[in-house]
Amino acid sequence: MSDITRVALDAMGGDNAPAEIVKGAVAAVKKQKGIKIYLTGKEDVLKKELSAYTYPEEMIEIVPATEVIETAEPPVMAIRKKKDSSIVVAMNLVKQGKADAFVSAGSSGAVLVGGQVLVGRIKGVERPPLAPLIPTEKGVSLLIDCGANVDARPSHLVQFARMGSIYMESVLGRKNPTVGIVNIGAEEEKGNALVKETFPLLKECKDINFVGSVEARDIPSGNVDVIVCEAFAGNVILKLYEGLGATLIKKIKKGLMSSLRSKIGALLIKPALKATLKDFDASQYGGAPLLGLKGLVVKTHGNATANEVCNSIVQCVTFKEQRINEKIQEAVQSQEEKKES
Amino acid sequence: MSDITRVALDAMGGDNAPAEIVKGAVAAVKKQKGIKIYLTGKEDVLKKELSAYTYPEEMIEIVPATEVIETAEPPVMAIRKKKDSSIVVAMNLVKQGKADAFVSAGSSGAVLVGGQVLVGRIKGVERPPLAPLIPTEKGVSLLIDCGANVDARPSHLVQFARMGSIYMESVLGRKNPTVGIVNIGAEEEKGNALVKETFPLLKECKDINFVGSVEARDIPSGNVDVIVCEAFAGNVILKLYEGLGATLIKKIKKGLMSSLRSKIGALLIKPALKATLKDFDASQYGGAPLLGLKGLVVKTHGNATANEVCNSIVQCVTFKEQRINEKIQEAVQSQEEKKES
Q1: In degrees, to the nearest 5, what angle opens at C-alpha A96 toward C-alphas A94 and A97?
Q2: Any idea what the Cα angle at residue B242 is, between residues B236 and B243, rounded to 5°?
Q3: Bridge partners of residue A142, in order along the sequence
Q4: pLDDT of residue B284
Q5: Backbone angles phi, psi at B86, to 5 degrees
Q6: pLDDT value of position B236
Q7: Contacts with B227 (C-beta within 8 Å, 6 or more apart), sequence order
Q8: Smallest Cβ distance to A242: which of B151, B217, B272?
Q9: Burial of A115 (C-beta count, 10 Å sphere; 0-12/13-18/19+)
Q10: Residue A81 CB burial class (10 angstroms; 0-12, 13-18, ≥19)
Q11: In angstroms, rounded to a whole number, what is the distance separating the alpha carbons of residues A297 and A104?
């Protein structure tokens, strides 16, 4: 295994592409040695963007791609038709073994479809979940799955729990991470059909530190490391996290401007408030990995700026060093063998 | 129809019963004329609690009930066995037409089961949804359903939309309220099987002002009056709203205590911050109605204090005056007739 982590970066995806993506790439290679970035996208545009920076030039290489997949495009069709798009070209680099990881702020749908169709699933993985880190009182928890594949089966959720545990242990260093399932009550008999079927399966798994149900109210407390749920619920949780945080902060800021007294107070609390809110800013944790694929696929926020892009790239190094995919493969195969015996 | 709104109040349910419940009852009859309260629970205990207050005594009457249903008890069994519990006695008052409304801070499960078994559904209503108001940037939206009956069918969601619209128009005075369905993307083809099936049904309803999908991120903005979802998702949204709000506020307060500078600032902003956060405090909006039953059933928070209990009782007056149940019955029957013709 090479010591260099090679990242194929979709330079054309996201609201702030290509400027912030390129800026993030430059920041990453300057921040950490051992990262080689393949920037995919329109050659002339990217050359111009790069020319504004000084950086170790051998660590960033442009791989031309003439097309761009837009967010609104139906993803299956887009991946099939736009063979020279920045996403497809970058994913093919992973498929061909020329890159270890793929990072994009572009169309979530296209990244999910491309991940499965082009990069491909690890043998035995039924469905690759999108697993972002969400901020909590204690740090972060992994929310798995927030992807576009809804209506999961119990066996999917069990694999999510297993893959999520490996990720939290290897990447975040949480020893024997706790796993909870999102539910509408603490008792085992509560829940919808999917949760009721999954609960006993998780209890049986000796390789998963399952602690039972997590009510949505308790997610922000951070008492559970890996929060397992079906993608529809996961998407609701992730998006509400973002939306509610933004609304509360907006309301507080508005409230602070309501009187002279509070305006003066606002000036005094600004640094403390800023530090507090930064803890709750999802972007500092980088992108969300799509776990269970034959390479690392990372989806960052559509509105990602250079800082988040840089963090997402740097995150790929730990992922590779910690051999996450090998560990997932071993865990899944060992389960398969148990089933067969 | 009598001008008096008669409320059967479960005086033994909730974390702060009976003290806060009784205090809330007294506050309600003092705040608004035309409310008669039947307090159900242990007679000696309630007599003692009431003796601390002066109030129009003919407006509060104790109806003895010797048993209490605990939150952890399996609800179906509890409702069946504990016939002399404060919940069952109070619900029977509604069933017998002696009370117009039922209010409880006790076991959600028992209230939901009792509502269906004892009070009974309006003819044609397939499933009674629990519909709390949630705070938004613009005021409040109705989140329907947050109850315990999960795995809903599309026809249920359509009825939720209809009942929620009637409630928002009649109780909150929103003309032609907008209705959205919780989804993981804005497009019609997005979503799980339930949402995909429900979407075209809602589009067809001429009596519903359906505006399409609502992503969880946009719920706090308050752009949609009635937010329709299946109870599992609704429960996740409601609980996360409460949990995330509490966590953010705790973090901000902690942040403000981090330096002398911010401590001084905190003193100055306190009134403004308090007013802002009050807007986002769900308890001031009273309890959540369980819609579609033959009487009004209101569930308040388990940790409700006198203020929320009082608001929940007062809310019953509007519900009765606005003839919500008659309107729901008319709407449901008119749909039934359309189906038959």
Answers
A1: 65
A2: 80
A3: A133, A226
A4: 66
A5: -60, -35
A6: 95
A7: B134, B141, B142, B143, B144, B180, B182, B214, B219, B237
A8: B217
A9: buried
A10: middle
A11: 8
Strands (E) located in A85-207: 101-104, 133-136, 139-144, 178-183
Please judge whether A256 and B248 are an interchain contact, meaning their C-beta atoms are less than 8 angstroms apart: no
pLDDT value of position B274: 79
Closest CB from B216, B242, B256 relative to A239? B216
What digits encode the pLDDT tens for the residues A113-143? 999 999 999 999 999 999 999 999 888 999 9
pTM score, whole prediction: 0.91
Measured CA to CA, the distance from residue A240 to residue A255 in angstroms comes to 22
The residues, ordered by sequence, that sit 6+ positions from A49 with a Cβ below 8 Å of its Cβ are A11, A18, A19, A22, A23
Which residues, 6+ apart, have CB-to-CB distance to B83 below 8 Å? B67
* CA A90 – CA A102 distance, rounded (Å): 7
User: Greatest CA separation found in chain A?
Assistant: 73
Quick one: how far is CA B17 from the chain centroid?
A: 18
Contacts of A221 in chain B (CB under 8 A): 243, 247
Nearest to A268 among B184, B235, B265 (CB): B265
CB-based contacts of B324: which residues, under 8 Å, 6+ apart? B166, B167, B170, B171, B291, B296
Of B67, B81, B52, B80, nearest to B10 (Cα)? B67
Distance CA A226, CA A224 (A): 6
Q: Angle at which helices A260-279 and A231-256 pack, to 10 degrees?
A: 150
Helix crossing, B19-31 with B306-321: angle to 10°?
50
Contact across the interface for A184 and B275, Cβ inside 8 Å: no
Look at the alpha carbons of A239, A242, A244, A250 in this order and tell me if their dihedral is positive or negative.
negative
Whether residue A265 and residue B265 make contact (CB cut-off 8 A), yes or no, is yes
